[in-house]
């Protein structure tokens, strides 16, 4: 679970690290991804595991379009830039939730028989639920891929450079909007991947994003804004803390542990664990 | 202080007095209960948003966790009332005091945090509060508290036959929050807040002074919001954790100020006057079907307004001013 949190959070961290925008609709991106893989399963009987790349690709387009249509303008605001971004992305979240309710009704859905759902695997006497295990593996691969992408490819360098100094980058002929749109697409695609995997073992309903979004923000902040590695590490910590809390406190309080650890960490280190901003 | 500023402050006070009198007379003409209900909520959110604006707008410490203080106000009042029979009036003050103390206690570590770290910390702390109340048996846990009916009187702050007293209390609360903001704007704190907001690094060199003024902002803001919370609890006469401490309240408090103009005296009032009737009407018209049309309309408006008018609606009325340290 922690690695999945990491995967959700990495997408958010990428968007934040790129351009200082917190996407308050991140949870709703996740929700869309889950619905998408649900419908791919319902209509075409494609297992969520197989549809994951499709969902990720769709979310990539979605993220880029959201950037070009909305976020681009929010970033132009000269006054109250922070508030404008918070409220435009939040407004977007509300619209997405409303649309989901309108088209999909508020009912809970789940994918009844996926390849992974409800199965466990036994490794050295430990019983591990398969979906979570696969989720963890996919997360690790996705993270490794992203890390490679950012640090080893030209486009990754362009991303980094645009983040450091958007003005100077324009001088060398890099189109800021294209880079940022690509970054948003990438962030959304990662969430899409996480959503597709989660769809195989989680209930799907219009508000599902909200319950993960706060944890994603906490994860990113815990790792430190601006650090993709931090978000991944934050995800692992959050997963471990959640599991530990669930042992001591009633299940409904399991998130309290995560929040407490977050507060503790930022009080000691106000920039998060690996934060640079 | 220059003459313009003094004149503007006097003008603001006169406008506020006129508006308050007009508002106080509206129930003479508006008898429709649905409309009265919307007016009460509008006034309440104007007051809440004005209080939120003190910490987040003037002082620049953006809090999205004010639902905590709203909920604490509601819970303190109702727990004292149902368990110990303490009159809501005292409960209201107690709730305010509890919230102000907690706000200051939290301010101690929180004010070291910057930007998004601060915002997330405020969301997180409100969420912790919500979860704790959710699991607190004595406080009704998830079931919440139904406020028993003990008669129809100002003394017990319960009115069964008419909504008018609630209306006048909401109006008074709104005026109080406005007046406190107006008064603080020209105080030592007011100037420190602007310093903190405009240039945190420079303000930091003022050290303790800045810290104390942030604490002051947090305490005043939390106190007023808690009073709003206990009013709301009496008004709806049923509370549970989600209905008074949910994240939506943090937003509903922030939105009017943001839409009207954050960090301005009139922004929250203007924002609430437009936003709350709009919210209620879209819910009235499109809600209830359970199909989320009200959310779509509401969300679209938020996106459009915040994109089109980053300084808030108020910026439509003011002539473009040269930017400076004061105002």
TrEMBL record, chain A:
Cell cycle recorded as keyword: no
Main location: membrane
Record membrane topology: Multi-pass membrane protein
Keywords per UniProt: Amino-acid transport, Cell membrane, Membrane, Transmembrane, Transmembrane helix, Transport
TM stretches of this protein: 6-22, 52-71, 83-104, 133-150, 179-205, 211-241, 253-270
Listed CDD domains: TM_PBP1_LivH_like (cd06582)
Compartment(s): Cell membrane
Family that this chain belongs to: Belongs to the binding-protein-dependent transport system permease family. LivHM subfamily.
Protein name stated in the entry: Branched-chain amino acid ABC transporter permease
UniProtKB/TrEMBL annotation, chain B:
UniProt cross-references to Pfam families, sorted A to Z: BPD_transp_2
Membrane topology, as annotated: Multi-pass membrane protein
Places the protein is found: Cell membrane
Stretches that traverse the bilayer: 12-30, 50-72, 84-110, 116-133, 166-184, 215-239, 251-276, 296-317
Principal location class: membrane
Keywords: Cell membrane, Membrane, Transmembrane, Transmembrane helix
Keyword Nucleus: no
Keyword Protein biosynthesis belongs to the record: no
Xref: InterPro entries: ABC_transp_permease (IPR001851), LivM-like (IPR043428)
PANTHER family: HIGH-AFFINITY BRANCHED-CHAIN AMINO ACID TRANSPORT PROTEIN BRAE, HIGH-AFFINITY BRANCHED-CHAIN AMINO ACID TRANSPORT SYSTEM PERMEASE
Name the record gives this protein: Branched-chain amino acid ABC transporter permease
Organism of this sequence: Bradyrhizobium xenonodulans
């Amino acid at each position: 679970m922690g690695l999945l949190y990491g995967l959700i959070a990495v997408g958010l961290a990428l968007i934040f690290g790129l351009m200082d925008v917190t996407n308050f609709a991140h949870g709703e991106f996740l929700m869309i991804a889950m619905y998408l893989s649900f419908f791919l399963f319902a209509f075409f009987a494609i297992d969520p595991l197989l549809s994951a790349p499709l969902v990720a690709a769709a979310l990539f387009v979605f993220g880029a379009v959201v950037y070009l249509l909305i976020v681009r303008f929010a970033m132009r605001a000269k006054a109250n830039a922070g508030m404008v971004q918070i409220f435009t992305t939040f407004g977007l979240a509300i619209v997405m939730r409303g649309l989901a309710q309108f088209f999909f009704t508020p009912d809970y859905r789940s994918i009844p028989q996926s390849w992974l759902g409800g199965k466990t695997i036994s490794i050295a006497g430990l019983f591990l639920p398969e979906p979570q295990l696969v989720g963890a593996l996919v997360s690790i691969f996705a993270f490794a891929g992203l890390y490679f992408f950012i640090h080893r490819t030209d486009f990754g360098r362009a991303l980094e450079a645009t983040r450091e100094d958007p003005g100077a980058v324009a001088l060398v002929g890099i189109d800021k909007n294209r880079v940022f749109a690509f970054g948003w697409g990438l962030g959304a695609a990662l969430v899409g991947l996480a959503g597709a995997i989660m769809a195989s073992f989680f209930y799907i309903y219009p508000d599902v994003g909200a319950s993960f979004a706060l944890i994603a923000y906490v994860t990113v902040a815990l790792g430190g804004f601006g650090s993709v590695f931090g978000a991944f590490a934050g995800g692992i910590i959050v997963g471990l803390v959640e599991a530990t809390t669930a042992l001591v406190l009633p299940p409904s309080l399991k998130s309290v542990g995560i929040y407490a650890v977050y507060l503790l960490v930022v009080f000691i280190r106000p920039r998060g664990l690996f934060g640079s901003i | 202080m220059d003459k313009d500023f003094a004149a503007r402050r006097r003008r603001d006070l006169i406008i506020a007095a006129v508006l308050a009198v007009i508002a106080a007379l509206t129930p003479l003409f508006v008898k429709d209960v649905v409309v009265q209900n919307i007016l009460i909520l509008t006034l309440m959110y104007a007051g809440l948003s004005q209080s939120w604006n003190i910490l987040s707008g003037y002082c620049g410490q953006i809090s999205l966790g004010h639902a905590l203080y709203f909920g604490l106000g509601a819970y303190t009042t109702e727990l004292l009332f149902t368990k110990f029979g303490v009159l809501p009036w005292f409960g209201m003050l107690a709730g305010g005091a509890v919230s102000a103390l907690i706000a200051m206690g939290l301010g101690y570590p929180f004010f070291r945090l910057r930007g998004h770290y601060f915002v997330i910390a405020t969301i997180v702390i409100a969420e912790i509060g919500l979860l704790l109340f959710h699991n607190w048996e004595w406080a009704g846990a998830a079931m919440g508290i139904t406020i028993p009916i003990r008669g129809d009187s100002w003394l017990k702050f319960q009115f069964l036959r008419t909504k008018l007293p609630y209306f006048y209390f909401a109006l008074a609360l709104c005026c109080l929050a406005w007046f406190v903001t107006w008064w603080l704007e020209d105080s030592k704190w007011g100037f420190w807040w602007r310093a903190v907001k405009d240039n945190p690094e420079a303000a930091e060199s003022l050290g303790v002074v800045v810290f104390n003024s942030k604490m002051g902002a947090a305490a005043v803001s939390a106190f007023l919001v808690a009073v709003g919370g206990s009013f709301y609890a009496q008004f709806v006469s049923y509370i549970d954790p989600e209905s008074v401490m949910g994240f939506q309240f943090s937003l509903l408090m922030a939105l009017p100020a943001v839409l009207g103009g954050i960090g301005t005296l009139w922004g929250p009032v203007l924002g609430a006057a437009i936003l709350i009737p709009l919210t209620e009407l879209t819910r009235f018209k499109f809600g209830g079907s359970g199909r989320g049309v009200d959310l779509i309309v509401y969300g679209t408006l938020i996106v459009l307004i915040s994109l089109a008018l980053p300084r808030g609606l108020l910026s439509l009325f003011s002539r473009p001013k040269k930017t400076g340290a004061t105002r």
